[in-house]
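=== RUN LOG ===
request id: a7f3
mode: sequence -> structure
chains: 1
length: 256
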Amino acid sequence: MTAPANAGRRVFLVRLTQGAALAASGGLVWTYVLRSEARASPFALRPPGALAEPDFNALCIKCGQCVNACPYDTLRLATAWDSRPIGSPYFLPRETPCYMCTDIPCLKACPTGALSPQLKDIRDARMGLAVIDIENCLSWNGMRCEICYLTCPVRGRAITVERRTGPEGTHARLVPIVHSDHCTGCGVCEKKCPTQEAAIKVVQADLVKGDMGEHYRLMREGITPGAAPPAPAVPPAAGPDRRPAVPGLDVLNQGL
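=== RESULT ===
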């Protein structure tokens, strides 16, 4: 009876040691995951209709329904090794951009409102903002390209082409210009850019957009900050020998 008892004790101790080692390893992995989550880059292009990042992360339950609903396999879920919050949906435009489905199936599949149902027109989506690297853009370097302009789903509004005078001794250039008030951030321009590394990239708008401030905004509109508003115009009083002035009517046509 002694030998079996000792053997059973050894098996118990081995399994106990294995369990402790497994728990410790799991704890180390989980600690790494949590630290990675804490250091996760705030940069992530979300599906159309996504709320502001703090609100989106609070509501998104990482269910993957938006990913399953995307007909182009644009969306993916972040893994533990991504520099994004684990399980959250995002897309990489250079690989597969958002092709702007008019019925927005990913939004309809969201069960929590992390993708706001208030978005009715895909052209009103603001997934990001395209930014042009003019030092490497072919058009800005004097070559004819304009692919980003030609492939833009909202061409003529999100991206326009403007004529710019080239350096002395060179011909004029037709260069693309991005307009933030119409850019949806779909990333088609980044996908189609022919340069080795895309010379136009979609990023989160708040990473690149500034804010002029109310003071300068008023100055641009010709209003001196802090000045009293202009007094309203007072209509001329009626004289003893003339009829009351009729707004918008010339005095010569008043029968006087």
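=== NOTES ===
The first helix runs from residue 2 to 38.
Residues 43-125 form a domain with the Alpha-Beta Plaits fold (CATH 3.30.70).
=== END ===
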